[in-house]
Amino acid sequence: MTPDSEKILAQMYLDQQKFMAEFREFRAQLEGHPTIADGWMDAKDAAIALKPEGIKSKRHLQTVRLDGAFSECKGEIRNVSKGDRPTWQYHVPNCRKALQRHFRRIRAV
Question: pTM of this prediction?
Answer without folding.
Answer: 0.65
